[in-house]
Amino acid sequence: MLKTKSPDITASAIDEGHPTTSMPFGNALIELGRTRPEIVGMSADLAKYTDIHIFAEAYPDRFYQMGMSEQLMATAAGGLSKEGFIPFATTYATFASRRCYDFMSQAVAEQDANVKLIGGLPGLTTGYGPSHQATDDIAIFRAMPNLTIIDPCDAYEIEQLVPALADHHGPVYSRILRGNVARVLDQYDYRFEIGKAALLRGGSDVLIISTGFMTMRALDSAKELKSDGIDVAVLHVPTIKPLDELAILREARRTGRLVVTAENHSSIGGLGEAVSSTLAMNGVCPELRRIALPDRFLDAGTLPVLQHRYGITREAMTENIRRWL
Fold it and tell me: Does one domain contain both 178 and 194?
């Protein structure tokens, strides 16, 4: 059963049975800032709701509150990067993609500016309705040249992601989870690396290729399916662009396995389409199914109800895989 740790419906959803870490993004940025004075934080009036407010409290002279002007934030971040700073600019993912696009293209990506745009409330992680549900942010950004795109799974990955972004020169768009965030990947000896997928567990019957918190659900589903005698492999793909095509092709070429992509994003333009294109262009043709959000504006409501309705829960994944087999 899915639950939230607070009545705030903008908080990240957590599946039962997983430990959590509070504000992993903000705390990792504070830690990074201790030794990296060039790190600056920015927000478009949403510091508290992207967990960067604690960085602002720790380093008030290195934080810029830009108000409700995401376009200005993106442009200013590009300028700061030209002066040697590394801006971490935060807002909701839907605003980062829909409102910032042209400014990210002109002032950041085209200039190869060292800007890290961070999008909170990715996909279906809020019940506020279509204005706040970033179901299309990855699709919007995938066609932008020079832009790296990342969708982390959990708190453990976010803690590794932040310093990796600072070490990586160039523009990045990354989703984040906020508030109390589940810890999953520390059980799998996982190490985050930009552009690399990781095989978290092997399996002879099914291969799930997943990103974001859907990797958590893929791992949980694999454990449940094991009791049915169904052996499930999980390939975690945190970097959507550049895609680790070699890892995907290597795993998909193993014959006799159903391949399932799983993402907290629209079925249009996200991981599923990227994987499908990679397989088709390389002549690899496994039986393929996709778990994703529908190509429609979603309803408002509580997260457990909405995620069940749109089929991205562990229970829905498990039942679909049983049916497909």
Answer: no
Please give the helix or strand (H or E) that residue 182 lies within, else none.
strand 180-182
The enclosing domain of 134 has a CATH number of: 3.40.50.970
Last residue of a domain, one of 182, 203, 222: 182
Residues 178 and 238 in one domain: no
Q: Please check whether residues 29 and 176 belong to one and the same domain.
A: yes
Name the pTM for this structure. Answer: 0.95
Q: Which of 38, 57, 70, 287 is catalytic?
A: 70
Backbone angles phi, psi at 121, to 5 degrees: 55, 55
> Side by side, which strands form the sheet with 86-92?
63-65, 39-43, 86-92, 116-120, 172-175, 148-150, 239-241
In angstroms, the CA 284 to CA 301 distance is: 40
Q: Which residues of 284-295 are buried (b: 16+ CB within 10 A; e: fewer)?
A: bebebbbbbbee
CATH number, domain of 236, equals 3.40.50.920
Summarised one tens digit per residue, pLDDT across range 115-130 is 999 999 999 999 999 9
Burial 9-21, CB ≥16 within 10 A → b, else e = bbbbbbbeebeeb
**In this structure, is residue 235 part of a structural domain?**
yes
Over 70: is that where the pLDDT of 5 sits?
no
pLDDT in tens, 114-173: 999 999 999 999 999 999 999 999 999 999 999 999 999 999 999 999 999 999 999 999
251 noted as active-site residue: no
Specify whether the CB–CB gap between 137 and 241 falls below 8 A.
no
Give the phi and the psi of residue 263 in degrees, each rounded to 5.
-150, 155
Q: What is the pLDDT of residues 170-209, one digit of tens each?
A: 999 999 999 999 999 999 999 999 999 999 999 999 999 9
Tally the domains of the chain. 2
Domain of 233 in residue numbering reads as 190-324
